[in-house]
Design brief:
elongated
Length: 142
C-alpha cells in the first residue's frame, strides 16, 4: 500500500517530466469538450431552457421569444450530440494519456486515439454510462 508521501513524490516526478505537455492536454481537452463531460449536464441545460413556467404557452408569446427558444433548443440538441460523438471520445483519450503518462512519455495525439479503430464502441459505452447516470442521478433535478 502506498502512503501519501510516496504518491506525492511520484506525482512530482511525473510533473517534472511532462508538465507543459500535461498542461496542453488539459487545456486542449477543456476547450474541445467545453468543460462539460457528461450528457447529464447537457440534458439538464436543455430541459431547464425549454421548460416554461409562464401562464401562456410559448406559441402565444412574441415572435422573438419563439425564435429565441427555438435557437436555444437547437443549440442544446447540437451540444448534446457534440458531447456524445466528440466530447466523450476526447475525454477517453485524455484519460488514456494520463494513464500512460505514469510509465512513459505519450504523444499529444493520444487524446484523439478514441476516434481510431473502436470509435463506435467508445461512443456506445459512454452514451450508456451517461444514460444510466442520468436515470439514477440527473432525473430528479429536471
Amino acid at each position: 500500500m502506498w502512503n501519501r508521501q510516496q504518491v506525492k513524490e511520484q506525482a512530482k516526478l511525473i510533473m517534472k517530466r511532462n508538465y507543459w505537455k500535461m498542461f496542453v492536454v488539459t487545456l486542449l481537452t477543456g476547450i474541445l469538450t467545453g468543460g462539460k463531460t457528461t450528457i447529464i449536464e447537457r440534458a439538464q441545460d436543455f430541459a431547464s431552457n425549454n421548460l416554461s413556467y409562464d401562464a401562456q404557452p410559448i406559441f402565444y408569446s412574441s415572435n422573438f421569444q419563439y425564435i429565441f427558444y427555438s435557437f436555444i433548443s437547437v443549440a442544446s440538441i447540437l451540444g448534446i450530440l457534440y458531447t456524445i460523438f466528440i466530447g466523450n471520445v476526447i475525454v477517453v483519450g485524455k484519460n488514456g494519456y494520463f494513464i500512460k503518462n505514469n510509465n512513459e512519455n505519450p504523444e499529444l495525439s493520444e487524446i484523439f486515439k478514441g476516434f481510431k479503430g473502436n470509435y463506435l464502441n467508445v461512443v456506445k459505452i459512454l452514451f450508456l454510462m451517461d444514460l444510466v447516470t442520468f436515470n439514477k442521478k440527473g432525473y430528479r433535478h429536471l
